[in-house]
Amino acid sequence: MAAETGTPTTLTLKSNDDELFSVAESAAILSVTIRNMVEDGCAGGVIPLDNVDGKTLASVITYMNGISAIPADEEKKKSYRDKFLSDKDFETLADMVLAANYLNMSCLMDAVSAKIAQVMEKKSVGWVRRKFGIENDYTPEEEAAVKEEHKWTFEGVETDDDN
Amino acid sequence: MSNTMEKQRRRIKNMQITTVVPDEIIVEILSNLPPKSLFKLKSVSKSWRSLISSPHFVKKHLNKQLLSLKLMLTFDESPPRRRYYINSCSLASLSHNNNNNPYSRVAMLEHPMLSTPIIDSPRLRKPIEIHGSCNGLILIIVGSFMFLWNPSTRKSKNIPHPCKIGDFHDPMKITLLYGLGYDESADDYRVVCSYNSNRHQILVGPYETEIYSLRSGAWKKADTIQMGFQGWVEYSGRFVGGRLHWLGGRYYEKEGGSYGCDIVSIDLAEGRCELVAMPDCLRHCHRVFPDSLKVLGGNLGLVCYVDNDCDMHIWVMKEYGVKESWVRVLTILLNCGVSDMLSNREEKRWYIGSLLWSPKKGDGVLAYGPGATNFRPVFGPTCTNLVFCDGRDDELRRVEVDLVDRIVEANVYVETLVSPFGDDEAGYVL
């Protein structure tokens, strides 16, 4: 046991583009997916994470290390999460929400979902379609009718651009 | 990597996102958004529209929003216009201890009376009364008009008033009690209206009681309430544990006579009526005044003034229906927090507009005053300050706001998609 020998156990995680990462077990088990693998004895060698790429995994590990270094103080954890996510663009956040879901990390999942929602709040319908890759399946008449029904909700929406 | 390659990579990545983001993650993300944005996003696609309209999503969204409390203040505009209007702001913005004006992010709400010109004309001016707030729905009453209103979706439903007695606005002739709650067993929102037309027994009863079901769209007779109140009764019922509660004054003849209070409750499923268990020290407390029954963190709470008239004790019934579970959880020393703005002793009685016991430590109690109360008739000087107590140090923090008009009422609500028309509307698909 790590606690008895004094050396923390380290796990090796492998992204789907074959990058290897070392991370303290105590931080990595914030992911229920990884914790289950550890408990099932699969952590001996390298843990393959088939749904997460290297860039995203590096980011998630930064988060794991950062948040697990904070003692049980919900306010401090919250401000760490806010700061951690503050400079992430939409694509990075989308990758992270998928990774958080796959890794089963509810605290990260909630924080990233809330952040994505915050980014989306004032965006145009076109922006949301592009970012989520959604095809507009309304006929022009149907779309006009839906927009007319909720006309007031388009007040204060940002003008369409490519960002 | 060349620019073109980068763009291509982006495009491929975006494609991957589309195919991978499953509906449950979309739901997670969207449930953080306010109703206004969600209504806008109904035009993204047919599947987003039906997802956002589904009862499952409405519930999921509600559960997420229950912690984000909003404050709703009803104002009585100064002459010459003299309209009633309603403002809202987030409670978190008031509790944050920053130097900016915490009341700056305020929005005026489009309440149903704005589009009902006949009521809003100064000649027929009647106060806007808010008698219930439950899961985003507000019970709003002006004269004989009754609306279920969701301020976040701007939808409102006119409900026919059940009381058929003529001229029922005269408080000398009739007393009307109202309440709004949710019956979990039937997944139904219910409005309660109790009325008494016997001018000699206005407070004592009996009270004819009817319950409106949003699901059936009809009123139904419930238990007649025998109030037994003396002196005063609160008009708005407080919703806790599937029951609505009204607080009223009592006079106890025994031992030379003493004033006190009682709480009567009615359950929304069966319409059964009973008295709430309270320890004698509360039942015989003669320093309980109208607008003292509160909902604190999902429990019934009671405000009792201390003998000096300006400090108050907050009691909470920790376990519903258990007399021994009433405990004093907080003492508010109004004197130390606000004494500098009160010039004479007469004005020292502050009324708590909305008392909150948020699950998160730090958010707490809101009071306003002096002299403002939603106990009719309304008297008192203009309130020009909001006072906030964060419950941590029992001290009131003064929120510096210059209010031009008088606050008549303060209520708390949440921003949800719950429709005043029930599930019928939510299930509507283009």
UniProtKB/TrEMBL annotation, chain A:
The name this protein carries in UniProt is: SKP1-like protein
- Enumerate the spans annotated as SKP1 component dimerisation domain: 108-152
Instruction: Classify the source by domain of life.
Output: Eukaryota
Q: Sorted alphabetically, which keywords does the UniProt record give? A: Ubl conjugation pathway
Q: Which pathway does it operate in?
A: Protein modification; protein ubiquitination
GO BP terms? jasmonic acid mediated signaling pathway; protein ubiquitination; SCF-dependent proteasomal ubiquitin-dependent protein catabolic process
**InterPro entries, per the entry:** SKP1, SKP1-like, SKP1-like_dim_sf, SKP1/BTB/POZ_sf, Skp1_comp_dimer, Skp1_comp_POZ
Q: Using the record's annotation, list all stretches that form the SKP1 component POZ domain.
A: 11-65
Q: Name one GO molecular function term.
A: cullin family protein binding
User: What is the stated purpose of this protein?
Assistant: Involved in ubiquitination and subsequent proteasomal degradation of target proteins. Together with CUL1, RBX1 and a F-box protein, it forms a SCF E3 ubiquitin ligase complex. The functional specificity of this complex depends on the type of F-box protein. In the SCF complex, it serves as an adapter that links the F-box protein to CUL1.
Q: Which family does it belong to?
A: Belongs to the SKP1 family.
Q: How does it assemble?
A: Part of a SCF (SKP1-cullin-F-box) protein ligase complex.
Q: Which GO terms describe its cellular component?
A: cytoplasm; nucleus
UniProtKB/TrEMBL annotation, chain B:
SMART domains assigned: FBOX (SM00256)
Extract the Gene3D superfamilies matched here. 1.20.1280.50
Q: Would I find Transmembrane among this entry's keywords? A: yes
User: Signal peptide location in the record?
Assistant: none
Q: Look up the coiled coil feature and give its residue ranges.
A: none
Q: Where is the F-box domain?
A: 15-61
Segments crossing the lipid bilayer? 130-149
Identify the Pfam families for this entry: F-box, FBA_1
Official protein name in the record: F-box domain-containing protein
Q: Which organism is it from?
A: Erythranthe guttata
